[in-house]
């Protein structure tokens, strides 16, 4: 794999995990966030992710590259791969993508890790829309090898080839899909989470019982509500709203239970409580 300088925009749950994947595969990363305290925490998270990846056998090499952190977006001007992983709000993503695309060169690949916003919608904000591709990593990306890569209507074959080389060079398996709200994974997954939350709210089954049925009967690694806690219930609600607004399907209207948990600050693993208690993870 060609040696690349990777810029990761957003140092939250996914941004820090993507940064860990890249540096663990020998690619230097500049991690950007507007909040220095978030960046300081992210550095510790990257170290934790790398340790876990080694324990799980997901990273066997020792060639860990440099991780730089910065609050200055201009520090990524020389990056040739940009991975956008900011919050799932279209206006925020569009603003960040517009700013970074004005800084990097015309040959730089811009990957958006959006969960549900159509890639072409975001590509309308960048200087070179043909160099913009969706790369929907699953959490945690250093353990889940498959990446849903989204070909926007304006994504070029050259950009897709670079995206494939970048991802496969880190040991990822690429599945290329077409563009649209939620793509494949989240068009199905977010609806499933929403329905599972409604079932729990109706008292038909507990979260534990719902997830046990999915793991025991359908062979899922985790059920929908444990998965929601891993994603972050705030991110689930944001993704559901994107899907509702862009498809007109009211089945994506966030359930009352999801909204209540988010209002209470119970986002899942990252806050220590969601549908489950997560001790020692906050």
Automatic annotation (TrEMBL):
Pathway: Lipid metabolism; butanoate metabolism
Keyword line: NAD, Oxidoreductase, Signal
All copies of domain 3-hydroxyacyl-CoA dehydrogenase C-terminal, residue ranges: 182-277
InterPro entries: 3-OHacyl-CoA_DH (IPR022694), 3-OHacyl-CoA_DH_NAD-bd (IPR006176), 3HC_DH_C (IPR006108), 6-PGluconate_DH-like_C_sf (IPR008927), 6PGD_dom2 (IPR013328), NAD(P)-bd_dom_sf (IPR036291)
UniProt site positions, description: Important for catalytic activity: 136
Signal peptide: 1-22
Pfam families given in the database record: 3HCDH, 3HCDH_N
GO MF annotation list: NAD+ binding; oxidoreductase activity, acting on the CH-OH group of donors, NAD or NADP as acceptor
Entry annotated with the keyword Signal: yes
Transmembrane segments: none
Residues in 3-hydroxyacyl-CoA dehydrogenase NAD binding domain copies: 5-179
Binding site for NAD(+): 10-15, 33, 88, 93, 115, 139, 270
Biological process according to GO: fatty acid metabolic process
PANTHER family: 3-HYDROXYACYL-COA DEHYDROGENASE FAMILY PROTEIN (PTHR48075), 3-HYDROXYBUTYRYL-COA DEHYDROGENASE (PTHR48075:SF5)
Family the entry assigns: Belongs to the 3-hydroxyacyl-CoA dehydrogenase family.
Protein name: Methoxymalonate biosynthesis protein
Record organism: Micromonospora carbonacea
């Amino acid at each position: 794999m060609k040696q690349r300088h990777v810029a990761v925009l957003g140092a939250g749950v996914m941004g820090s995990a993507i940064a860990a994947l890249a540096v663990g595969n020998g690619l230097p990363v500049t991690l950007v966030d507007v909040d220095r305290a978030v960046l300081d925490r992210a550095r510790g998270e990257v170290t934790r992710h790398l340790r876990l990846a080694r324990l799980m056998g997901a990273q066997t090499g020792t060639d860990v590259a440099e991780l730089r952190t910065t609050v200055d977006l201009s520090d990524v001007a020389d990056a040739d791969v940009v991975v956008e992983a900011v919050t799932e709000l279209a206006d925020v993503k569009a603003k960040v993508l517009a700013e970074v695309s004005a800084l990097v060169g015309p040959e730089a690949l811009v990957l958006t890790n959006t969960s549900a916003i159509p890639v072409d919608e975001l590509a309308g904000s960048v200087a070179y829309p043909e160099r913009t591709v969706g790369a929907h990593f699953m959490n945690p990306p250093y353990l889940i090898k498959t990446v849903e890569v989204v070909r926007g209507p304006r994504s070029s074959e050259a950009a897709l080839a670079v995206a494939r080389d970048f991802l496969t060079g880190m040991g990822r398996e690429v599945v290329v899909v077409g563009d649209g709200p939620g793509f494949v994974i989240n068009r199905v997954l977010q609806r499933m989470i929403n329905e599972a939350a409604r079932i729990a709210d109706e008292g038909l089954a507990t979260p534990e019982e719902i997830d046990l049925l999915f793991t025991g009967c359908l062979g899922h690694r985790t059920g929908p509500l444990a998965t929601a806690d891993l994603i972050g219930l705030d991110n689930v609600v944001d993704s559901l709203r994107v899907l509702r607004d862009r498809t007109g399907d009211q089945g994506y209207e966030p359930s009352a239970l999801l909204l209540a948990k988010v209002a209470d600050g119970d986002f899942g693993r990252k806050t220590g409580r969601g549908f489950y208690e997560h001790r020692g993870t906050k």
